Amino acid sequence: MLARIMNIEAYFERIGYKNSRDKLDLETLTDILQHQIRAIPFENLNIHCGDAMELDLEAIFDQIVRRTRGGWCLQVNHLLYWALTTMGFETTILGGYVFNTFTDKYSNAMIHLLLKVTIDGRDYIADAGFGRSYQMWQPLELISGKHQPQTPCIFRLTEDRGTCLKPFEIKLRSVTTFPHSFSSEEKNLWSW
Prior knowledge:
Shape: globular
CATH class: Alpha Beta
Keywords: Acyltransferase, Transferase
Radius of gyration: 16 Å
Structural class: alpha+beta
Oligomer: single chain
Mean pLDDT: 79
Distance between the termini: 38 Å
Number of helices: 5
Family: Belongs to the arylamine N-acetyltransferase family.
InterPro entries: Arylamine_N-AcTrfase, Arylamine_NAT_domain_sf, Papain-like_cys_pep_sf
Helix content: 25-40%
GO molecular function: arylamine N-acetyltransferase activity
Largest sheet: 7 strands, antiparallel
Low-confidence stretches: 165-192
Protein name: arylamine N-acetyltransferase
């Protein structure tokens, strides 16, 4: 049982973040995202050790912040969602279907979680947990056709019939509750 309270200052200490906590702008979002990516690795040790993957936010906080471990995208991005929302950012959890280049298909179920952050009327994708060479290092503006150069590659989100964005093939959609609404019956909003 987790009796301790989650603390935003403990999160900032865990990611080594000492900069502005007051500005809700793209620069602050980018800075926090980069600090979290550098400090908190994508990690799936629980499945190899026979432990359950904890999806409760307090358990995620305990695993990642207090015990200084990493986590799955579901965990690290849920923690990022909590931190950004606690700071006052307008943040939405998105679920995604990941494209498998070997089978040339999307996953049957939503297996990825990432965030949409709205700043000054503009939407951005923030993902601290893709865990591969396509890991974004800055938020991507959620706009079709714009080249967005970053360290791993140039991202360009492309709209497909109003429902998809595809630079490296993850279908996105809004998730109203976490994690229970990951059903294949819901309509896709974006892929990227």
